[in-house]
């Protein structure tokens, strides 16, 4: 069996661009929610002097994440802003003093066993850097380590344009293997699979060289078929196992971790500097000089693009992430987040969506869906308000990869319909559950 | 900075559009169009032109009337016009061709909601409407023109179609395989030249516009059943509207199933009905009826052959 997918233009223009560290911006705005889960609680107040790497937001609850200052300077304000996801979130704005002096408390964590590894990962503030932003320590909070058969390292980087993971593999490959060493030692895992698309020849070579020195790291070269980097797709293509609907990779004995996340963990164990900066691909048709940049978290997109050489023309759409799954931001004042791996600025032509026309029933959406869903039927059931049918059609399986919308000759917004249908399905299921409970009483 | 465009991902789209799919179908129909002119003379071009022009005009005017979006530029009306013309005899009176085209676009396509919403193939259904309404002129078959003499000669020589000849047992007026393959015999405009249709079919397959499932299932069923019934297999495959129907009409997106198995069931069903009509029915030809009948079953076939979502839970 093979999973369906699509061929997207790669546009990996910046694969050879070694990341440039940008000069520290005057101010950074750090939201307390850059991860999946509960926002962090600010522990500084206006006027406080903070240093690089100092904790400014502590995790609130289990699924949450620590947040650190990315610059040294003074806390200018703490206020609520609307995030690009449309939610109100507290943000800490820090005026930089330009010194970038490191916080005194920073030192390499002491890791002796799995527990202390988890504590260290939690303290580092790392979240899934491939884009999902799921707190990594939560992923590592496994009760039964025996269940873990393999760690799948996601180095597919299947989105067009983005090359920040490629750069990690080329520039920080030692840290990736240090991360692997830590997991091997403390998690007692003895199989590591690095899944990488075949369009990254240099990175494959480099990783192979390093993997040859070990006997439990496999480099799994995958065809460049989008969405190769989707968690379920990757686990299927590397381990030939299907993660059940609503389940986790662990259900089939796998842990999936992004290559940059792992590399960060490897580096953190060595120097103890928390997640305060990111390598970001700055590209797109509105960017003058596409390149990879290292930016402090909280830098505004405007400052980042300015540092990268500016816009070529007026941008009409700016994305967090790649063009297939990226989020369009309302303005370039939005900050760079922990899980931002690219900023794509598009010109008028690239940004304007094609006109939507009537569905001609070609079935391309269905025959390209990796999970074999039927977006046409989903759209119909959604329109007719049929929760039961949406449940049968398994719309909750949809990962919003965008293959269906991409191939649609009528340019129908199928991902959007799927998203709305998922909300409708959840409402239906909640209602059904409530009714069942009522009857039970 | 001007307000940024904000929409749900993806922010890229593929190269395929409804318009370029239809353009591919038109390109695939061109060999058959050329063949029709070579075989039946310039009047073939006139009939095709009238059908195409009427279909486009009907689409445009009806959409104006209903205040719908104008879809003339998606080229689907041209495809319908060409396919309808290819299903008519060259001697068809122009006014009848006009009425047929209007029926195809207005009655079969637009009244059900326009492109993608029709449940039956417009060209096929219009042809059947015309068969019933204009029985005489729809079965007035013309032998191929003799080029070099008088192309515009109006007094036509009527000839039996190969299938009609076979049905009546007139073995002496049955053309050879080569004649059938090249299409140099009486019949509808676009259906006679097997070579041109196969060429078009290969183009559509290569461009990914159609998949092989329906045509292969359709043609294979006819071949197998002809063999079982002791008929001349190759003769059955090359004559009548089988190839035109299997390649161009049974592969219409809106009116046929879109899953692999759905397409195969559809093709087999078409093949069986065609054989039933050809061998045991009152009519010499049954391709149009078979496709129309299977169009009606499409929603049920689709439901039966739904693709199973990858819910997992078991090792593969």
Protein model, in words:
The complex is a heterodimer of chains A (441) and B (316). With 441 residues, chain A is an alpha/beta fold. Chain A has helices at 114-124, 136-140, 164-171, 173-187, 201-211, 231-239, 259-271, 301-307, 348-351, 364-368, 375-383, 387-392, 403-407, 414-440, and strands at 20-21, 27-31, 41-42, 49-50, 55-58, 67-68, 73-82, 88-96, 150-155, 192-197, 217-222, 254-258, 277-283, 291-296, 317-320, 327-328, 342-346. In chain A, the strands form four sheets. A six-stranded mixed β-sheet of chain A has the order 1-14-13-17-15-16, sandwiched between helices. Chain B has 316 residues and is an all-alpha fold. Chain B is built from 14 helices and no strands. Mean pLDDT of chain B is 90; it is low at 150-155. The interface between A and B is large, with 71 and 42 residues.
Report how far apart the termini of chain A are.
46 Å
| pLDDT averaged residue by residue of chain B | 90
Low-confidence stretches of chain B: 150-155
Indicate the overall shape of chain A: globular
Order of helices and strands of chain B: HHHHHHHHHHHHHH
Return residue spans of chain A where pLDDT drops below 50 for at least 5 consecutive residues: none
Task: Determine the number of helices of chain A (DSSP H or I, runs of at least 4 residues).
Answer: 14
CATH architect. name of the domain at 114-271 in chain A: 3-Layer(aba) Sandwich
Choose one word for the global shape of chain B: globular
Structural class of chain A: alpha/beta
* CATH fold group of the domain at 114-271 in chain A: Rossmann fold
Number of helices of chain B: 14
The computed structural class of chain B is mainly alpha
Count of individual beta strands of chain A: 17
| Estimated radius of gyration of chain A | 22 Å
């Amino acid at each position: 069996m093979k999973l369906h997918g699509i061929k997207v233009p790669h546009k990996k223009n910046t694969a050879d661009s070694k990341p440039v560290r940008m000069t520290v911006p005057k101010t950074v705005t750090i939201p307390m929610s850059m991860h999946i889960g509960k926002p962090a609680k600010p522990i500084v107040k206006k006027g406080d002097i903070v240093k690089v790497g100092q904790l400014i937001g502590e995790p609130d609850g289990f699924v949450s994440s620590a947040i650190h200052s990315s610059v040294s300077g003074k806390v200018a304000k703490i206020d609520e802003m609307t995030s690009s996801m449309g939610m109100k979130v507290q943000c800490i704005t820090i005026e930089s003093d330009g010194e970038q002096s490191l916080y005194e408390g920073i030192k390499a964590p002491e890791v002796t066993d799995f527990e202390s590894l988890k504590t260290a990962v939690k303290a580092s503030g790392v979240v899934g850097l491939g884009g999902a932003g799921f707190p990594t320590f939560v992923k590592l909070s496994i009760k039964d380590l025996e269940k873990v058969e393999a760690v799948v390292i996601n180095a597919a980087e299947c989105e067009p344009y983005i090359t920040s993971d490629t750069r990690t593999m080329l520039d920080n490959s030692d840290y990736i293997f240090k991360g692997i060493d830590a997991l091997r030692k403390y998690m007692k895992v003895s199989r590591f699979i690095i899944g990488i698309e075949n369009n990254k020849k240099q990175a494959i070579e480099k990783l192979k060289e390093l993997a040859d020195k070990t006997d439990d790291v496999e480099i799994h070269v995958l065809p460049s078929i989008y969405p190769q980097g989707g968690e379920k797709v990757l686990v299927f293509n590397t381990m030939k196992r299907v993660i059940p609907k609503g389940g986790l990779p662990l259900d089939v004995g796998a842990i999936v971790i992004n290559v940059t996340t792992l590399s960060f963990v490897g580096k953190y164990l060595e120097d103890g500097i928390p997640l305060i900066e990111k390598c970001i691909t700055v590209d797109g048709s509105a960017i003058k000089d596409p390149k990879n940049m290292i930016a402090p978290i909280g830098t505004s997109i405007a400052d980042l693009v300015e540092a990268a050489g500016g816009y070529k023309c007026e941008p009409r759409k700016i994305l967090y992430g790649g063009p297939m799954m990226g989020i369009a931001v309302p303005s370039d004042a939005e900050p760079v987040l922990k899980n931002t791996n690219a900023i794509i600025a598009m010109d008028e032509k690239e940004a304007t969506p094609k006109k939507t026309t009537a569905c001609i029933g070609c079935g391309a959406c269905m025959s390209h869906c990796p999970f074999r869903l039927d977006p046409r039927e989903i759209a119909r059931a959604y329109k007719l308000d049929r929760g039961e049918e949406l449940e049968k059609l398994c719309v909750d399986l949809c990962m919003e990869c965008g293959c269906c919308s991409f191939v649609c000759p009528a340019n129908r917004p199928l991902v959007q319909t799927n998203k709305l249908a998922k909300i409708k399905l959840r409402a239906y299921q909640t209602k059904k559950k409530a009714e069942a409970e009522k009857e039970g009483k | 900075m001007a307000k940024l465009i904000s929409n749900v991902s993806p922010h890229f789209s593929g190269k395929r559009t409804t318009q370029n799919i239809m353009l591919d179908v038109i390109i695939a129909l061109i060999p058959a169009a050329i063949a029709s002119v070579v075989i039946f003379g310039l009047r073939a071009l006139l009939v095709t032109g009238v059908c195409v022009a009427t279909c486009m005009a009907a689409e445009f005017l009806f959409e104006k009337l209903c205040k719908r979006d104008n879809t003339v530029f998606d080229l689907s009306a041209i495809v319908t016009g060409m396919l309808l013309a290819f299903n008519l005899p060259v001697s068809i009176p122009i006014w009848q061709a006009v009425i047929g085209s209007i029926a195809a676009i207005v009655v079969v396509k637009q009244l059900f909601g326009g492109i993608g919403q029709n449940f039956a193939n417009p060209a096929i259904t219009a042809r059947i409407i015309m068969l019933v309404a204009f029985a005489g002129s729809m079965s007035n078959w013309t032998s191929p023109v003799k080029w070099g003499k008088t192309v515009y000669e109006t007094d036509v020589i009527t000839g039996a179609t190969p299938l009609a000849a076979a049905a009546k047992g007139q073995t002496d007026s049955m053309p050879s395989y080569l004649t059938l393959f090249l299409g140099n015999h009486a019949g509808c405009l676009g259906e006679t030249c097997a070579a041109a249709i196969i060429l078009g079919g290969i183009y559509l397959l290569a461009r990914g516009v159609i998949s092989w499932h329906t045509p292969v299932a359709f043609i294979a069923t006819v071949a197998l059943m002809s063999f079982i019934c002791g008929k001349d297999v190759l003769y059955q495959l090359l004559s009548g509207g089988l190839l035109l129907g299997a390649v161009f009409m049974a592969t219409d997106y809106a009116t046929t199933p879109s899953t692999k198995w759905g397409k195969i069931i559809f093709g087999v069903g078409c093949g069986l009905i065609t054989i039933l009509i050809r061998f045991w029915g009152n009519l010499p030809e049954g391709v149009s009826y078979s496709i129309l009948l299977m169009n009606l079953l499409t929603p049920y076939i689709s439901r039966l052959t739904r693709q199973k979502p990858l819910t997992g839970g078991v090792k593969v």
